[in-house]
Task: structure prediction
Amino acid sequence: MLGTAAEPGTATGSWRPDRSLIAEIEAKLVMPEGAGPLSGYARQYTGVTEGGRAKVRGSFIAYGFVPRSTPPVTIVKELVPLIEDGGCAVVNLEFDVASTEMRLACNGEA
Result:
């Protein structure tokens, strides 16, 4: 199932995170159990403002499900697609910029 990384009405704005913030996030993250190494995924990031809080959302899709020619990191202002199945071939990230709290999880299986 494909949607967007924010439910309609919850995100009040979008913004483009800079590469230094993405590098900081990637240096701290630990892939969830069952997922491959970070380098095995094409990663797309965007920034959203939700409830007055700046958050970075990420969608990681394992190579094999996307071509190897896909850039390893893409940063966009628009909401990234949210894929709701695929197991650990798809990993979703939410990072709260102010608190630095991070949630990272594999998708379920359809």
